[in-house]
Design brief:
By secondary structure, the protein is mainly beta. It is built from 1 helix and 45 strands.
Length: 572
C-alpha cells in the first residue's frame, strides 16, 4: 500500500492497477497492485505500491509497467500486454413487448456482436436489474465467447402473469472494460388491453340507388389481450340516417348482450343501408359501450343515381293584393350521375286554389335531364280575398315527382300573405263620464291597422239624429284629412292613428246622451265600423275624489320581501 505517512502532503488516489487481475499470454496470473497517482518531492514520476507483488516498497509506475511489458513478452504498443480493442455492440438496446395476453409467451431477440478488432469477449453472466419484473426471462446463450466480428443472439421472453405494466433492465456481464464490464438492455411491456375492431369495416362503398336497401355482415372482434364486457351496441348519427343495425347480435355463446368478449373472439353484426337520397353519408357511428368506456367505429356509404335539386327550397310571394297574379320560377337540376326523369310538378293536396304550376311536365311528356342539366318551371299565385294564410303564411306545397327514389316527391313550400288592411278601432265605446253644463271634455279613439296593406278611412261620421244639440264633435287633424272632411285618411300597415273626439254639455244639468260614430274604410273585415259615444250631464262642476279600493290588505310578508298593489283615485 501507499506509504501515506511518507507522502502525507501529497494528494493520492488509491486505485487498483491494472483494473482487473491480468493474465499474460503465457498464462501467468498477475495479482492486483495499487497505483497512487502522486509525485515525489522533486516533481518526479508517480509511484506504485507493489506490496501485493511482494516488493513491499514504493516503486516508480514506469518501472512496474516495464516489468509487466517484459513479462508479457512485449511493450505497450501494438503487441504484448496492451489492453485489447474489444467492444460489445447490442442491437437493439431496448425491447418493447407491447401488450401480451395473460399466459402467453412473447419473445424478442438481441444481437450481440464483437465490433472490436482483437481479443475475445467472454460473457460471464446475465441477470435482471433490481426492480425488474420476473415476467422477463431469457434463453441460455449458444455462444458465450466472441472473437472479433462474431455475434450471438440473446432471446428474451415476456410471460405476463399479473396483467400490469412491466419494465426494467437485463444486465449482460462481460470482460469489456470500456462499458464498465456490462451491457444493459432495457425491457418494457404494456398492461392488458382490450382492442375492439369491426372487420370488415362498415363501408358500403358506392351503391346504385335502385339497389337499395343493401345489407352487410361484419364482426366486432377483440384483437387485444384483455376481455371486454360488451354491454350495448348502437348506431348514432344524423337525424334521418339511412343506416340501421339489426337487433340480432350473434355472440360466440349464442346469447345476447351483455357479453364478455375474450381475446380473439368476435360478435356478428348486420347493418342495412336503406333507401336514401343520392350522396355520401359519413357522419354515422357505431357505438360499443363497455361500462364507462365507449368505442366508436365509422359507418359510411354513398348512393349513386339521379339527384334532383330544386331551388329555391322555399317560394315566398310576399304580400299580394287579392285578385292580382304573381309568378316565380323553380329551377330543377340533376346533380347525380344518372339521367333524371321528372314526370310531374304540381300543387299538393290542400294548397290554395290560386296556386298553379305553369309549363310543368306531364306524365305523357316528362322532363329528362342529363348530369348537371337544369329546367325551369313557373309557379303562379292569384290569392282571393277570402284566403286566410294564418300566422305561418302557408299557401301550400309544390311536389316534384322524379326517378330520384330517395327524394321523390321533393316538396317545396310556398308562402304568401294578402296585401290588405285590417281595421281594429279601440275603444268601441267612448265614455266621457259626467260633464258639467258648459264644459267641454275630450276623449281619444285609436284606429289601428293590424295588416300590411294601407288602410284608407274615407269617412268619420257622427249620427246627428241622436245628437240634436250637436254636442259631440271630431277635432280636425291636418295629418289625417278625414277628421275635417277634406279627404280620406290613410293608416299605414301595422300603425295606429289617434282621433280626438269632444263632448260639450249644451243641455240640462242631468241625464245622459248617446250617439254613434261610424268609421267607413276599405278594410275587408269591416267596411263600416260603429263606435258608441256616451256622456252624462251634471250641473256646476264638482269634484268628489275617492280612493278605489278604500283599503288595501298586504297580508303577511316575510322580512325583506316586497309587494306592490294599485290604488286608483276616482272622481265620483
Amino acid at each position: 500500500m501507499c506509504d501515506n505517512a511518507r507522502r502525507a502532503d501529497t494528494h493520492r488516489l488509491l486505485t487498483p492497477w491494472p483494473p482487473f487481475g491480468y493474465t499474460s499470454s503465457s498464462g501467468q496470473n498477475w495479482p492486483v497492485a495499487f497505483f497512487c497517482p502522486q509525485r515525489d518531492y522533486a516533481g518526479g514520476a508517480p509511484f506504485v505500491d507493489d506490496t501485493a507483488l511482494g516488493g513491499g516498497i514504493m516503486r516508480p509506475l514506469f518501472a512496474i509497467l516495464a516489468t509487466w511489458a517484459l513479462a508479457c513478452g512485449g511493450g505497450l504498443g501494438a503487441s504484448g500486454g496492451k489492453i485489447k480493442d474489444m467492444h460489445l455492440e447490442a442491437d437493439p438496446y431496448a425491447l418493447d413487448f407491447g401488450s401480451v395476453a395473460l399466459g402467453s409467451d412473447v419473445t424478442r431477440t438481441v444481437k450481440l456482436t464483437h465490433t472490436g478488432t482483437e481479443g475475445v469477449i467472454v460473457i460471464s453472466d446475465i441477470r435482471r436489474a433490481e426492480g425488474t419484473s420476473d415476467e422477463f426471462s431469457w434463453d441460455p446463450l449458444a455462444q458465450t465467447e466472441l472473437s472479433a466480428g462474431e455475434s450471438t443472439t440473446l432471446v428474451i421472453h415476456f410471460r405476463p402473469v399479473r396483467g400490469e405494466k412491466a419494465s426494467g433492465s437485463i444486465i449482460i456481464t462481460h470482460n469489456v472494460p470500456d462499458t464498465d464490464y456490462k451491457t444493459v438492455i432495457k425491457v418494457s411491456a404494456a398492461g392488458q388491453v382490450g382492442d375492439l375492431t369491426v372487420v370488415p369495416p362498415f363501408d358500403f362503398g358506392e351503391v346504385p340507388q335502385t339497389e337499395l336497401p343493401r345489407t352487410m355482415d361484419a364482426e366486432l372482434k377483440n384483437f387485444g389481450t384483455k376481455p371486454v364486457m360488451i354491454d350495448k351496441i348502437a348506431l348514432k348519427g344524423i337525424a334521418g340516417s339511412p343506416f340501421a343495425l339489426s337487433d340480432v347480435v350473434v355472440t360466440p355463446a349464442g346469447t345476447g348482450l351483455p357479453y364478455e368478449l375474450k381475446p380473439g373472439e368476435a360478435i356478428g353484426l348486420v347493418a342495412t343501408f336503406n333507401l336514401a337520397d343520392v350522396g355520401c353519408y359519413e357522419d354515422e357511428r357505431l357505438f360499443v359501450y363497455s361500462g364507462t368506456d365507449r368505442y366508436d367505429f365509422p359507418v359510411v356509404g354513398c348512393v349513386i343515381g339521379p339527384k334532383v335539386v330544386v331551388s329555391p327550397g322555399i317560394v315566398d310571394f310576399g304580400y299580394v293584393k287579392p285578385g292580382v297574379t304573381v309568378t316565380k320560377d323553380l329551377t330543377i337540376t340533376n346533380q347525380g350521375d344518372y339521367d333524371l326523369v321528372v314526370t310531374d310538378v304540381l300543387p299538393f293536396v290542400g294548397a290554395d286554389p290560386g296556386l298553379v304550376v305553369v309549363g310543368g311536365p306531364q306524365a305523357s311528356s316528362p322532363f329528362k335531364l342529363a348530369k348537371n342539366e337544369e329546367r325551369k318551371v313557373t309557379v303562379s299565385w292569384t290569392p282571393s280575398l277570402g284566403f286566410d294564410p294564418g300566422e305561418d303564411r302557408h299557401v301550400g306545397f309544390i311536389h316534384v315527382i322524379s326517378n330520384d327514389l330517395g327524394a321523390s316527391p321533393t316538396s317545396i313550400e310556398v308562402l304568401g300573405d294578402l296585401d290588405i288592411p285590417c281595421i281594429a278601432p279601440d275603444p268601441e265605446l267612448v265614455d266621457f263620464g259626467f260633464v258639467a253644463q258648459g264644459i267641454t271634455t275630450s276623449r281619444f279613439l285609436y284606429i289601428s291597422n293590424d295588416c300590411h296593406g294601407d288602410l284608407t278611412v274615407s269617412s268619420l261620421a257622427i249620427d246627428k239624429s241622436a245628437d240634436p244639440l250637436d254636442e259631440f264633435s271630431i277635432v280636425p287633424d291636418a295629418t289625417f284629412p278625414v277628421t275635417s272632411g277634406s279627404g280620406p285618411g290613410v293608416v299605414p300597415g301595422f300603425e295606429v292613428k289617434a282621433v280626438e273626439i269632444r263632448f260639450k254639455n249644451k243641455g240640462p244639468a242631468e241625464g245622459c246622451v248617446t250617439a254613434t260614430l261610424t268609421i267607413t274604410s276599405d278594410s275587408p273585415n269591416a267596411e263600416k265600423w260603429p263606435i258608441a259615444l256616451q256622456a252624462c250631464r251634471s250641473g256646476t262642476p264638482t269634484c268628489k275624489p275617492v280612493l278605489v279600493p278604500a283599503t288595501i290588505n298586504f297580508g303577511t310578508l316575510a322580512v325583506g320581501d316586497s309587494l306592490v298593489k294599485t290604488m286608483k283615485l276616482k272622481n265620483t
